[in-house]
Design goal:
Ferredoxin; two-stranded antiparallel ribbon; three-stranded antiparallel sheet; 2 helices; alpha+beta; Fe-S_cluster_ET; Alpha-Beta Plaits; globular; single chain; binds iron/sulfur cluster
Length: 66
């Protein structure tokens, strides 16, 4: 089952670890805050998107059951 990518935009500090891990799901805006390029994460992409979310130093990203 697909999951939903979620972000805490207040917590994001713009470290961009998530962008390195999954640049097709995460980007940074002009203010250095994360942007979700796709919120729905199919099962096939879940391992690498979850890993990218875990790489966030301030735990601003997570996946939820949809
Ligand atoms: S890794 Fe975390 S702090 Fe860095 S841009 Fe992504 S969400 Fe923001």
């Amino acid at each position: 089952m697909a999951k939903q990518a979620k972000a805490d935009y207040e917590a994001c500090q713009g470290y961009a670890n998530c962008v390195m891990g999954a640049e097709d799901y995460f980007d940074l805006d002009d203010d250095g805050k994360v942007v979700l390029l796709a919120s729905e994460v199919p099962e096939s992409d879940e391992p690498r998107v979850a890993e990218a979310a875990r790489s966030c130093p301030v735990s601003a990203l997570w996946l939820e059951d949809s």
